[in-house]
Every structure is written in C-alpha cells, then in structure tokens.
Amino acid sequence: QVLDGAGLDVDFHLLSPKGETLVFDERKSDGVHTVETEDGDYMFCFDNTFSTISEKVIFFELILDNMEEDREDQEDWKKYVTGTDLLDMKLEDILESINSVKARLSKSVQIQTLLRAFEARDRNIQESNFDRVNFWSMVNLGVMVVVSAVQVYMLKSLFEDKRKSRT
C-alpha cells in the first residue's frame, strides 16, 4: 500500500525462485496477493521509476501461513505426557483452544497493522490538503489586501482637486 507520495501509485513485481513473474501490478495504490510457494528465494520489487520527481512511502506485510515447522513444535509436548487417556484428551482440547486463540490473535494483529497503514495514508492526504488550503488562503488574503489598497487609492484620486488654483 502506498502511504504517501504523488499519485499514490507504484509498480510491483514478484518473481519466483525460478525467475518466473508471479505478480505484476502496474501503478496500483494497494494490493493483496496470495501465492503458493516452493523452496527457494523469492524476489519482490516496488518500482517508482516512472515518477522520477516524487518519492513514495509504502507499507507492506509478508504473511507466511501453514508453516510445517510450527506443526512439529506443537507435537513435541506429546512425548513428555504420561498418564491416562482422559488426561491426553483434556490436553488435546486445551492445545486446540490455545491454537485457536493464537490464530485469532495473529489475525487481529494483522488487521490492526493494516488499519494503521490506512490511517497513515489518510493522515498524509489530510496534511497535504491542510497545507494546500492554507497556502491558497494566504494567496487569497494577499490579493484582497492589494485590491483594497488599490480601491482606497482610486477613491482618493476621485476626490482630489485636479485644478490648479491661482493665488
């Protein structure tokens, strides 16, 4: 997501470890992409070469789901448990509840981070608009002062006696 910069747009490329283009977005302000991965190094690039004058501030988040290593770590506790089947069943229920809470908390953190990014982008737009309104208000005020000075001068010139008096 582009948070700040002229046009709020940027190009995005995502390449697989084999060098194949998986995603190519041209001049987008935001986007969400889901990709099935394989082993290797992926490359992603945010490209702003089409706008050489203005710089951009971007926000991105990389979310990795269904990691196999996490599953193995969760099963390690079972080898230390000894006892009745009832105890194993209760521990399974507790583990399932904990994993459910963990997944929901993780999703909540992701949503809050995304909302923070939206808020930052909107704040940048509001500050830009505030500066623009202040600038044009000052220009308008300056024009009004100049016009009022010219009007006072013109009115004075109307009431001046232009005849030369002989004494």
UniProtKB/TrEMBL annotation:
Membrane topology category: Single-pass type I membrane protein
Protein name as annotated: TMED5 protein
Organism: Urocolius indicus
Cleaved signal peptide residues: none
Matching PANTHER family: TRANSMEMBRANE EMP24 DOMAIN-CONTAINING PROTEIN
InterPro entries found in the cross-reference section: Emp24-like, GOLD_dom, GOLD_dom_sf
A cellular component term, taken from the record's GO annotations: endoplasmic reticulum-Golgi intermediate compartment membrane
Membrane-spanning residues: 135-155
Family membership: Belongs to the EMP24/GP25L family.
Compartment(s) of residence: Endoplasmic reticulum membrane; Endoplasmic reticulum-Golgi intermediate compartment membrane; Golgi apparatus, cis-Golgi network membrane; Membrane
SMART domains hit by this protein: EMP24_GP25L
Record domain GOLD: where: 1-64
Keywords: Endoplasmic reticulum, Membrane, Signal, Transmembrane, Transmembrane helix
Superkingdom of this protein's organism: Eukaryota
